[in-house]
Amino acid sequence: MDSALPREAGQLLRDARRVVVFTGAGISAESGVPTFRDDLTGLWARFDPQRLATAEAFHADPDLVWGWYEWRRARVSRAEPNAGHRAISIIQNRAPECTVVTQNVDDLHERAGSHKVIHLHGSLFAPRCVAAAHPAAFAPVSGNATPDEGRPVPPPRCASCAALVRPGVVWFGEALPEAALTAAVEAAAECDVLLTVGTSGVVYPAAEIPGIAARVGATVIQVNPEPTPLDRVAAINVRGTAAHVLPALVASAWQETVET
Ligand code: OAD
User: Fold this and answer.
1) What percent of the chain has pLDDT over 70?
2) Is the shortest distance between the CB of 8 and ligand 1 below 6 Å?
3) How far is CA 47 from CA 36, 51, 93, 94, 205, in A?
4) What is the CATH number of the domain that holds 152?
5) Does residue 205 sit in the same domain as residue 95?
6) Looking at ligand 1, which residue's alpha carbon is closest to its atom 18?
7) How far is the CA of 1 from the centre of ligand 1 (A)?
8) Does residue 29 have its Cβ closer than 6 Å to ligand 1?
9) Number of folded domains in the chain?
10) What CATH number should be reported for the domain holding residue 179?
11) With a 6 A CB cut-off, is 174 part of the ligand 1 pocket?
């Protein structure tokens, strides 16, 4: 286990022509957005995914499910990107090619300056109707009042076909958006370095992405304070938090300072 940042990590990043950054909920933890599987604070420690994150749950109680996602959308809207997100946007600017692939449904990578972010699990900000997937609008988050986490909120109706509007996220049992998955797999299969940050690496098919890179000979660097199943895929495991380690990585690669 490496607790400090090995010098070779910065060198590998600087020398890479094609980089993939693969992120999970841990990248946003230091922005105050809860992860899913951390003990006590993780969303799945406090809420039952079967009641909130499946198509069946939405069918059974749309108000409960929509209200929970509205609570999450409000929380994310009030969060700010952290130094880890900013470091990734610098990596994207510095590397000749860099694709950011995230499992997160927040928009913190984009707000930190990353572009063309591939969202494997959809977005809190792209609701659509259940009947025909018409994109839907919703009220902007306003004021300081965060909706109560358990308060039911009726979902809006589609302006085109009057069907219920659902969150634009991937639920358990649903397929990932095909174009996003294909683009992520292609980027992983062509990269020299894959940096995986803040994911437990247990949700498939997303969790296969680092392994795809490793199989084509890319160096996988993992940043996570805890061990994960990806430890054995990664050539370099850095135990630390994203907002701490990623600015150090950028400094090591390009002597550039990330605003903290
Ligand atoms: P998890 O909650 O499963 O894992 C979060 C990971 O982040 C853990 O390995 C933590 O150790 C690590 N972590 C915590 N704080 C960190 C920090 N400050 N810096 C770096 N790492 C940190 O979240 P995901 O792996 O993203 O799916 O979960 C994958 C999918 O499971 C999610 O996209 C979601 C969930 O069910 C859907 O909603 C479809």
Assistant:
1) 96
2) no
3) 9, 8, 38, 40, 23
4) 3.30.1600.10
5) yes
6) 241
7) 20
8) yes
9) 2
10) 3.40.50.1220
11) no
Mutate which of 117, 166, 200 for ligand 1? The one with the most ligand atoms within 8 Å of its CB, which is: 200
Mean pLDDT of the chain: 94
At 200-251, the pLDDT tens digits run: 999 999 999 999 999 999 999 999 999 999 999 999 999 999 999 999 999 9
Q: 147 and 236 share a domain?
A: no
Nearest to 88 by CA among 221, 206, 180: 221
Dmax (CA) for the chain in angstroms is 57
Ligand 1 binding pocket includes 112 (Cβ within 6 Å): no
> Which amino acid does the sequence have at 1?
M
pLDDT tens digit string along 81-95? 999 999 999 999 999
Distance 50 CA to ligand 1 centre (A): 18
| Residue at a domain's end among 108, 138, 169 | 169
pLDDT (average), residues 91-117: 98
Atom of ligand 1 nearest to the CA of 35: 2
Its domain, for residue 59, covers: 34-78+125-169
What's residue 2's pLDDT? 43
Residues marked as catalytic = 121
pLDDT, tens only, 133-176: 999 987 766 655 666 777 899 999 999 999 999 999 999 999 99
197 vs 259, residue with greater confidence: 197
The token duo for 76 is: 């994310």
Q: Which two tokens stand for residue 254?
A: 């390009």
For residue 24, the CA-to-ligand 1 centroid distance in Å is 5
Q: In a 3-state reduction of DSSP, which class is residue 11?
A: helix
* CA–CA dist 223, 26 (Å, integer): 9
Beta carbon of 42 within 6 Å of any ligand 1 atom: yes
Residues 132, 116 share a domain:
no
> Does one domain contain both 134 and 244?
no
Task: Tell me, yes or no, whether 112 and 211 share the same domain.
Answer: yes
